[in-house]
UniProtKB/TrEMBL annotation, chain A:
This is ANTAR domain-containing protein. Keywords: Phosphoprotein. SMART domains: ANTAR. It comes from Acetobacter conturbans. Residues 129-190 form the ANTAR domain. Coiled coil: none annotated. The modification 4-aspartylphosphate is found at residue 58. Residues 8-123 form the Response regulatory domain. InterPro entries: ANTAR (IPR005561), CheY-like_superfamily (IPR011006), Sig_transdc_resp-reg_antiterm (IPR008327), Sig_transdc_resp-reg_receiver (IPR001789), WH-like_DNA-bd_sf (IPR036388). Pfam families: ANTAR.
Automatic annotation (TrEMBL), chain B:
The keyword tRNA-binding does not apply. The keyword tRNA processing does not apply. GO terms for molecular function: ATP binding. This is Nitrate ABC transporter ATP-binding protein. Keywords: ATP-binding, Nucleotide-binding.
Length: 199, 325
């Protein structure tokens, strides 16, 4: 089934958009057979089914630990266990991979393959996605923090019978006094002053 | 204010002291700036500690020791800073409890297991939260006490604790050993019954410890005494039964609002002082130097570590005053 010299790469990513982009990049290399697997199939079953040489895994997959521990498991049923790829001599590559949220597993007991070029492609693509995601998250956080501040102000105005200006000054004063951010003070105020109503 | 300390933890009720210390501003008061990173799995926590994704973590000793020994890549001199919790783990099996069955050590427990296994109709699939977990050690000890072998009589599977309820509900696992509040939640949801726990297998064992890596100790101005002081205050707050409702509410809040999105009822039922024998304990104060001996001995027996590894751990300060509270 497997053509000689070709490397089977299993790409396990819960984000179909990113998985599609990465598999398109990797498929440009004629020596790779790229197989993608989504969240529906447990990672360990996907490895058993596709018998890859290399597994690239989105680190946010909760079932990564199962693959990680395959040698310790009696019921894993894998003919060739896989192990986390670690390059101790290239600390920068490893840190970049974990920061981008991707890691790689190699099949044990087969001739070692050079996984670094693959990992580098994956890192650069993941980092691009991460940047977009974190920009989106920052924007969402700003909105939800603003909502929390508004809610805390309303609650403070109700509780203290005061105006909006005074409510905001109280939040600001408390933030300065405790060296914390206003949104954190707002969240704390909502939490401690809305018992029994929102819960 | 010193450098930001990135602390990794999982969605577990015994993460309470770190969450409480952050929410109550205790870290800030002691001059430490902390960012809590709720990780999807223990592998992510361990790799984060090795590859500069985390500076510290709330973690169980076996995985921390294996990480310190370099089993996930380069050794990084990971050291314990403070013991945070004791006990709290539960072993749960799927289905309704078998009436009148005795799950205590010896032939009675073995007979109950056989009866339950017949009802399950397959080699039971039992989950633990990581291959190098206290939970696997505890499960192995318990099953061995009722004459059941982890290697031969069950199928062991690994999954993060917050996936266990869904897996039990879907029937993809038949039981588990996990930290709070997941055992209690499985019970409250009627998915399974509790057969044993930390209290009956290894009473008062060390569960979560705060570890910091070398980088933090040597390269950055993190004051571990300040971290200890903030955590000790938070532990005392968590131990006070009059705070139990409030803390359970904090843990039940969404992650984006400073909580861990846990079930309030299940968490409340295992808060310190609750009636469960496996209620959590966040005791502060000095621990004995031999608190981790049983784990190291079991890890050795299971072939995870060698005698030389144990010596390395001792040299790194794992069995000395650093384990003091």
């Amino acid at each position: 089934m497997q053509r000689k010299g070709l490397i089977r790469v299993l790409l396990a990513d819960e984000n179909p958009h990113r998985a599609g982009a990465l598999s398109a990049t990797l498929r440009a290399d004629a020596s790779l057979i790229v197989i993608t697997t989504g969240p529906d199939l447990p990672l360990i079953d996907a490895v058993r089914l596709h018998m890859p040489d290399i597994v690239l895994v989105d680190m946010s997959r909760a079932d990564r630990d199962a693959l990680d521990s395959v040698r310790a498991l009696s019921g894993a049923g894998l003919e060739h266990p896989v192990a986390l790829f670690v390059d101790e001599d290239d600390e920068h590559l490893m840190e970049a991979a974990f920061e981008a949220g991707i890691c790689s597993y190699n099949v044990v007991d087969t001739p070692p393959r050079d996984v670094k070029p693959l990992l580098r492609s994956a890192i650069s693509l993941y980092a691009r996605f991460q940047k977009t995601q974190s920009e989106l998250r920052a924007a969402q956080r700003t909105i939800s923090e603003q909502q929390a501040i508004n809610q805390a102000k309303r609650l403070f105005m109700q509780n203290e019978g005061c105006g909006e200006g005074e409510a905001y000054r109280w939040l600001r004063k408390r933030a300065m006094k405790t060296a914390r951010r206003i949104p954190d003070i707002a969240a704390e105020y909502i939490r401690t002053h809305s018992k029994g109503t929102s819960r | 204010m010193s450098h930001l300390l990135r602390v990794g933890l999982l969605r577990l009720a015994d993460s309470a002291p770190v969450v409480v210390a952050r929410n109550a501003g205790l870290f800030e008061r002691h001059g430490v700036s902390v960012e809590i990173i709720a990780s999807p799995s223990w592998a992510n926590v361990a790799d984060g500690l090795v590859w500069n994704g985390l500076d510290a973590a709330l973690i169980f000793p076996p995985l921390a020791m294996m990480t310190a020994l370099g089993r996930r890549g380069k050794g990084n001199g990971l050291k314990p800073v403070q013991t945070v919790s004791f006990g709290g783990n539960m072993i749960v099996l799927r289905g309704a409890p078998l009436l009148g069955n005795d799950w205590s050590a010896g032939p009675a427990g073995q007979q109950s297991f056989r009866t339950w296994r017949t009802r399950i109709g397959r080699a039971p699939r039992l989950a633990v939260v990581h291959a190098y977990s206290t939970h696997l050690l505890i499960l192995t000890r318990y099953l061995s006490s009722i004459g059941v072998s982890v290697r031969d009589d069950i199928e062991l599977t690994i999954m993060p604790p917050d996936r266990i309820i869904d897996a039990l509900s879907a029937g993809s696992i038949d039981g588990f050993c996990a930290g709070p509040p997941w055992g209690e939640e499985a019970f409250l949801k009627g998915l399974g019954f509790i057969v044993a726990g930390s209290s009956s297998i290894c009473p008062e064992h060390v569960e979560k410890i705060l570890v910091m890596n070398d980088r933090t100790h040597n390269g950055m101005p993190i004051d571990s005494d300040a971290v200890r002081a903030a955590l000790s205050e938070a532990q005392a707050m968590c131990m006070d039964p009059s705070n139990a409702d409030d803390i359970a509410h904090q843990l039940a809040a969404p992650v984006a609002e400073g909580g861990l999105a846990l079930s309030f009822d299940a968490t409340r039922a295992v808060m310190p002082g609750a009636s469960s024998p496996d209620a959590m304990v966040f005791r502060t104060g000095r621990q004995k130097n031999d608190a981790l001996d049983w784990m190291v001995s079991d890890m050795h027996n299971l072939g995870w570590i060698s005698t030389d590894d144990a010596i390395t751990l001792e040299r790194l300060g794992w069995f000395t005053r650093e384990m003091a509270g």
